[in-house]
Amino acid sequence: QVQLVESGGGLVQTGDSLRLTCAASGQTFSSYGMGWFRQAPGKEQEFVAAISWSGGRTYYEGSAQGRFTISRVNANKRVYLQMNSLNPEDTAVYYCAATTYSCSDNGCPNKRYEYPFWGQGTQVTVSA
After folding, report:
1. How do the residues of the chain divide into helix, strand and coil, expressed in percent and rounded to 5?
2. Sorting pLDDT into bands at 50, 70 and 90, what band is 128?
3. Bridge-partner residues for 70, per DSSP?
4. Exposed, middle or buried by CB within 10 Å (0-12, 13-18, 19+), for 74?
5. What does the DSSP assignment read for 14-53?
6. Are the beta carbons of 79 and 20 closer than 8 angstroms?
7. Which of 28, 74, 75, 83 is the least buried, fewest Cβ under 10 Å from its Cβ?
8. What pLDDT is stored for residue 62 in this prediction?
9. Going by C-beta distance under 8 Å and a sequence separation of 6 or more, which residues neighbour residue 127?
């Protein structure tokens, strides 16, 4: 099993950047693929980005492509989401999640049911 704790959220202005951190505990962190999801008020949770266990493959949801970067440092048991050019539509609670599904040439896991382990979330608010 793996336990996940997100941090780094906050209140920023349009155009600003934020870096979210997901700290993992457990012996086998490097064997998990990792993902970020978000849930805006009144909306369903949606996939943002994912990264393979080695960090060699990444996959992004459409609006995140080109603005967000997911990365990981297995030695430190950390996953990061660098978010640039933020806009009010990015306002949401952001969740880190771990999966045993693998990435492929077609992409990485991007469905909630593929991720059995979740953090508690961190709030990101982008003001206009």
Report:
1. 10, 50, 40
2. very high
3. 81
4. middle
5. TT--EEEEEEEESTTGGGSEEEEEEE-TTS--EEEEEE-T
6. no
7. 75
8. 87
9. 11, 12, 13, 14, 88
